[in-house]
Each structure stands twice: as C-alpha cells, then as structure tokens.
TrEMBL record:
Keywords: Membrane, Transmembrane, Transmembrane helix. It comes from the Eukaryota. The lineage of its organism: Eukaryota, Viridiplantae, Streptophyta, Embryophyta, Tracheophyta. The chain crosses the membrane at residues 29-47. This is WAT1-related protein.
Length: 61
C-alpha cells in the first residue's frame, strides 16, 4: 500500500513538474500509454504463453 502511494505521489510530482516546464498534457498522457503498453505487453505474453498454446492446439492449427 505504501509503495502504491509513493508511486502516485511521484506521478503527481512528475506531472506538475512537466506541466510547469511547458510540456503538453496530451503528450504526457500519450507517453504514459506508451510506457504502460511497453511494460504490460511482455508481461502478458510471458504469463499467457502456456495457455495460448492450449488454445492453438484445441483449435486445430
């Protein structure tokens, strides 16, 4: 719980700093989505690797 709160505080500070420098909030949101996808996609591929193999075998391909 403390780690989540620290991450949220760091995120808020980062956004405040970037917006005070003059960075667009649209660009910040786009960067957030890109970094989230870069983290989640490999994690999902690793975790679902064995279950996707069973789906492929069951479908006949």
């Amino acid at each position: 719980m403390v780690v989540v709160q620290a991450a949220l505080v760091g995120n808020s500070v980062f956004y405040k700093l970037a917006s005070s420098i003059g960075m667009s909030m649209s660009v910040l949101i786009a960067y957030r989505f890109v970094f989230a996808a870069a983290f989640i996609v490999p994690l999902a591929l690793l975790l679902e690797r064995s279950s996707s193999y069973t789906y492929i075998c069951a479908s006949g391909f």
